[in-house]
Design brief:
With about 375 residues, the chain is of the alpha+beta class. It has eleven helices and twelve strands. A hairpin with a 5-residue loop joins strand 9 and strand 10. The longest helix is centred in the last third of the chain and has 25 residues. The structure holds alpha-D-galactopyranose.
Length: about 375
Amino acid sequence: MRVVEAFRESYGMEPLGVWHAPGRVNLIGEHTDYNDGFVLPFAVPWGVTAAVAPRADDVIRLRSLQAGEPLTIETLDQAEGWARYVVGVFWVLREAGHPIRGADLVIDGDVPQGAGLSSSAALEVVVGTALNELYGLGLTRMEVALAAQKAENDFVGVPCGIMDQAASALGEQGKALFMDCRSLGTRNVPFDLAQHGLQLLIINTGVHHELADGQYARRRQDCENAAKHLGVEALRDVTDLAGALSKLRGDERKRTQHVVTENHRVEALIGLLRAGAVQEIGSLLNASHLSLRDQYEVSCAELDVAVESAIRGGARGARMTGGGFGGSAIALVADERVESVRESVTRAYAERGWSAPEIYPATPAAGARRLV
Ligand code: GLA
């Protein structure tokens, strides 16, 4: 294993173990997690692998096979860039009173670049999972996910919800993870596309609109303001949508319309899966995309073109996935239509002078685990 060889070469000894945590794709339930709502992501076959050995002092030595120079971090505030996602997890666990010392780590990631498939969550979760085992902390998978989210919120400073870390920590092969983000209750739902002659294609736009970085926090704020106006704890609690909309205006109104209907779409999709009607979920994916585009306003031209051209090419449904403003779209496609969808999307991008998006199928993979 590459990561073990690199560990030996870097530190002149064997790691104590090797762990892997996957990225995720979200089937449906977008921008609902921080509204106490429902999500349905699954863990993907790509992620982050870490070889780790604990140290007797508080130093963290860190090398990534994807990023430049090895780092030696003596105090946590020295961490910069991607290293903050690693160091943040040490910080959270120490703050919680766990006896975590330093460690030597080598990290190897294969989440496609720019795909918006949560490589950062995978990095946090792999570190959390390794430390949990190495120190016998006895944390549940969900507790590891929560520690990872806290690292991202409070150490890295990104106000993300719990979806990505939970999918990475709790995913199961062949299953999607249904999660109630209020109770944190989860259920692994069988999601076997091959059995139905279907594929879920990821269309990686390869773009990330930097200008949009503050937009995530603004959407959260819109939702919190709307909930306050409506006198509910979170938008999850809105039951009378028409009544709620009549009390709101502008952005708060649009965001509420999205979040409330998106929660219903998650439940409807689960219902179809339970009934064994996977081929019928496409229209829910389409509706989710339109809502994200028009009400939540987190799509972008590259995502819209990916979705529209996939549908023109014969996809049963398609939508942007993840936070938005770039990253990936997903398309549900019958086996015999895969080539025509590829051609349609590739042509639509070429016509606009955009570089061809990568397109590849994703199947639900296992969540975080020890490999060695
Ligand atoms: C990002 C965040 C998640 C979630 C999605 C939108 O991926 O990290 O918590 O809010 O956006 O659904």
